[in-house]
Amino acid sequence: MNFTDLGLSEKVLAAVQASGYTTPTPIQTQAIPQALQGKDILGIAQTGTGKTAAFTLPMLSRLELGRARARVPRTLILEPTRELAAQVEESFAKYGVNHRLNVALLIGGVSFGDQEAKIMRGADVLIATPGRLLDFFDRGKLLLTGIEILVIDEADRMLDMGFIPDIERICKLVPFTRQTLFFSATMPPEITRLTEAFLHNPVRIEVARASTAASTIRQGLVASHGAADKRETLRRLIREAENLKNAIIFCNRKRDVAIVHRSLQKHGFSAGALHGDMDQLARMASLETFKTGDVSLLVCSDVAARGLDIPDVGHVFNFDVPTHSEDYVHRIGRTGRAGRSGVALTIVTQDDGKYIDQIQSLIGGPISWEGPSFAELPEPAIRRDAHGSRSDRGIRPREAGDRSGRRMRPSSRQETPGEPEKPITQMGAFSPKGYDREFIRSRPVTDERRQRIPRRHFEDDGPPVIGLGDHVPSFLLRPVTFKSEPVTEE
Ligand code: AMP
Fold first, then answer.
1. Which atom, in ligand 1's list, is nearest to the CA of 49?
2. CA of 95 to the centre of ligand 1 (A)
3. Which atom belonging to ligand 1 lies closest to the Cα atom of 24?
4. What does each C-alpha distance from 448 to 168, 190, 192, 469 come to in angstroms?
5. How many angstroms separate the alpha carbon of residue 65 from the centre of ligand 1?
6. Can you give the pTM of this predicted structure?
7. Tell me: the pLDDT tens digits for 211-243?
8. Sign of CA dihedral 55, 56, 58, 62
9. Is the CB of 353 under 6 A from ligand 1?
10. Which CATH architecture does the domain made up of 217-363 adopt?
11. C-alpha to C-alpha distance for 115 and 284, rounded to whole angstroms
């Protein structure tokens, strides 16, 4: 199948050719002809499958007829994060070089004025995060009655981030007759319900998960003690890595992103960071320095990195084992792209056994240990307490863990504060997100906003802790023995 067989316009085909693409990916082959016919699409696909072009190219072809009016955009693309929105904007710039279309971006952390000016000029394509879009709408700066095509991208991520009430509201604000192109990597029940309510006879297209294409990635587990030893382990892995060109380092919490970032810089590594507390400019700058190779290490949280298209990353290091196994697949999918080889190493402590089990069952096989397993792991040279300070107290006796990691202790929520903490806003590249906070505070608390309770929390929020939380003190786990007393009959 060629791009010329899909029914795309001449202008679009010329741009595709200029991009250097020769063959459409499976999602493009299946989605583009249907989208050009105006059908609703339910695409079950994740980043890396070429799904952005699968909706961008037919949209460009269809937008060649007609013009946008002031404040009434013609098409709307909803993205869960600012980075993804900015990435889609780049795709429109690339594939739309032969078009004279107005593309507007509505995302948090960017000044209202510039965004408003673009919308006033008449946007052919509006790319937005749901919250900012509704704020514009509620302020009367925007009408959604002209939307011909609605794209909802990364719907399962929207669910994770608590955006579903916003999405439902937006779906009701756009005309009933619009075309909807809906993409999600997974189909949890809430997403299925949404598609049933808002898609009209959609064509369902499912493409293989990126995890199945991970054969080019060498995966490994690296045993480490907790807290500061993990940072030492990370440094060793970076130093010992063969042909390390660049690497993404994942932490579970933004607080740890800041700590690891600072620690790497302190040890002379060229490192940047990306997490949700950085303002938009700092995030973009950080990403750009990594893309251009000015820094070779990028420390990230899952939310900040999800869906980012950073081609040719050689190594992924999981500083923390992700607590949601799907995040593991997304993380390691940053490397080994487009048939290139990649390395994904995960630092594992004794507390991570449960999560490693879940990951291994999701990817359908064991991940082997690189270097010593827990049983063979030497004691750390310097003992540190949970705060990274030297400690003369003995370290908890290790429990034997076999090479599959199955006998490791069940998980408790990990505390790895490490080096003495500073507020994130005082650290290097991070700047306060004051503008956004002010902005959020100024928004009316509607019932929908109240309902916007994330399915799970991100970064350092963690799930709500009830009672003792996940952690059960070991004394409570000891079997209770009763002294048997002779039963006396009265
Ligand atoms: P996406 O899944 O949209 O994030 O795309 C992942 C990467 O694949 C991006 O870097 C695209 O530029 C690239 N890409 C998209 N379509 C094609 C294609 N037909 N051939 C080669 N690369 C592509």
1. 2
2. 12
3. 19
4. 10, 16, 20, 28
5. 26
6. 0.59
7. 444 567 889 999 998 767 899 999 999 999 888
8. positive
9. no
10. 3-Layer(aba) Sandwich (3.40)
11. 17
